[in-house]
Amino acid sequence: MNATVKDIVKILDDFARPELAEKWDNVGLLIGRVDKPVKKVIGALDFSPEVCEQAIAEGVDMIITHHPAILEPLKTITNENWQTEMILKIIAADIAVYSAHTNLDSVIGGVNDILARKLELEDIVSLEGEENPHEGIGRMGTLPKEISLKDYILTIKKALKIDSVSVVDGNRPVKKVIVCGGSGSFLIEKAIELGVDTLVTGDVKYHFGQTAAANGINLIDAGHQWTEMPIVNALADKLALKFTKEELDIKIIIAKESPIFKVL
Question: What percent of the chain has pLDDT over 90?
Answer without folding.
Answer: 94
